[in-house]
Design a protein that fits this description.
The structure is a single chain. By secondary structure, the protein is of the alpha+beta class. The chain has one domain (about 5-155). Helices cover about 45% and strands about 15% of the residues. It has helices at about 15-25, 50-60, 60-65, 90-100, 100-115, 120-145; strands at about 5-15, 40, 75, 85, 145-155. The protein has a 5-stranded antiparallel sheet with strand order 2-1-5-4-3. Helix 4 (about 90-100) packs across helix 6. The longest helix has 22 residues, at about 120-145. The protein starts with 6 loop residues before the first strand and ends with a strand.
Length: about 160
């Protein structure tokens, strides 16, 4: 059972911030399955966990990661506070695009240790699956010269 107020995070690609904001206004996950296919319902938030992931995959210090202008910058489509689209850094996108399966497994294991989860827990397995999906999306979006974005939504 999902706790009340729980949020999932959908990751998708778009040509630029304006296109991403427009997608945020007309968000319909069922219609967004054309290439590159989004990653739906992850627990990987675009602020804390994406910054940690970029640190792990690139070795960049935290202060540099969060100082990046695309680090979890909120886009406000048409001034609607109920609609939120968040940018993902190009550094994380590039790192995910070249990440190997062991790199992603290591990131999930680090997250498991920081949250006190078992390395084989359902949460860790879900994180590993989400990380592989994000890596697939990053590779496809770079090939199409697109940027990555996140759309938080209630689960």
């Amino acid at each position: 059972m999902t706790p009340p107020g729980a949020v999932g995070f959908d990751y998708f690609a778009a040509a630029d911030d304006l296109a991403a904001a427009a997608l945020g206004l007309s968000w319909d996950p069922a219609r967004r399955r054309r290439p590159p296919r989004p990653v739906f319902g992850t627990t990987i938030d675009p602020v804390v966990r994406c910054a940690q992931l970029e640190e792990l995959l690139t070795g960049r210090p935290h202060r540099e990661v969060v100082a990046d202008p695309r680090s979890a910058r909120a886009l406000d489509p048409a001034g609607d506070p109920a609609v939120l689209v968040v940018t993902v850094t190009c550094g994380l996108q590039a790192a995910l695009a070249v990440a190997t399966a062991p790199d992603l497994q290591h990131a999930a294991a680090v997250w498991a240790r920081t949250t006190g989860s078992d390395a084989d827990s359902a949460t860790t397995r879900r994180d590993r699956t989400s990380l592989h999906g994000l890596a697939r999306l990053a590779r496809a979006s770079l090939a199409d010269e697109l940027l990555l974005y996140c759309r938080p939504r209630p689960r």
